[in-house]
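Good morning C.,

I know you're traveling, so I'll keep this short. The sequence:
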Amino acid sequence: MAGVVVLDMTNSALAVTLLTFWRRAAQLVFGGFAGIIGDRLGRRNTLTLSQFVIFLSCLALLLLFAGGRLSAWQIGAAAFIIGASWTVDAPARTALVPDLLGGGLTADAMLLESFLHSLMNSIAAYLAGWLLELYGTAGGLGALIVLTGLNLAILAWLGREKVPQTISVAATSVWRSMGEGFTYIRAHRPLLIVAIVSALLNTFVFPALSLMPVFARDVFESGVLGLGLMNASYGLGTFAGLYLTHRMRRRLTFGTIFAAGALLQCTGWAVFALSPLFSLAVALLFLAGVGQAGFYTMRNVILLTNASNEMRGRAMSTVALTQGIGLPGEILSGSLSESAGPRITVAAQAGLTALASLLVTSWGGNQQENGRRDADSDP
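The tokens, ready to paste straight into the viewer:
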């Protein structure tokens, strides 16, 4: 939604990608601290605090818009603040899962979380375009405020449930804790491979999501409703991919599904960028979404199941940090899109990332630690 508003304000693809640039900048700044913050403040307290900051940010944007003072730089500032909140929120939320359910149900919990995430993304993607078309910026911001307020209410309700403390809070300094986290990941090849591949995709592939408003308006000339349809197709692909991931995890290793998902996503984006037809592009985004399901779900499963209880929060911080490392990719993608065009930019970056990811995952091999199959029998 913010990308459409900024594109209308500035008519610049670079300005659109700068929104994700600021979110990634926040992830780069706070990513290494996210797990430590969750461990020290308490994971549920961290979730509540981050959602409250997001609520205030959306409210500030709505008030600025109502006063006729909203500008692109203010949206960028809000993107940084919201990005920082997400960076702290995500590791705490994911690391809380084994605390609630135990390690044996981690894969199932991640599949359920991904299922709900994809379902809501699919619905929200179209609704965002519909809200902007009918009610403009005020309607979109108002919806964000209502949803964030609902999140806070749910967290307050869940806060009454007691969760046993499964880890001891680190007594060492913040910097030493960060160093221990990096050393731990480097010493465990499954975690290191996940971190490298995630950094590659976040740097060279996911910036394509920032360029979706450009593809909708300038490449396919489909407007905000077309943008909503493309985003919805990607989300529905993720939704369908979760079913395939659920079926394949009983036959294939976690690492294999992760690698296949990354490659499928890269390939889908590369061919999407070169599509001559809008309908074909929508179908290819569905394919990329299928790959996203395997990549995203197994990334979290591998991190949670291979990391010790003490290091779980810091291992999940690598996800936010690799997203922050992708910050230069936003500037690169925006700049190349304005000079070479969005088609060539996305196709080239996604194709090269597919090759690099293949090399990295091949280096990882088919190790047992990385590649545990789900022990459950097929129902």
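Safe travels,
E.
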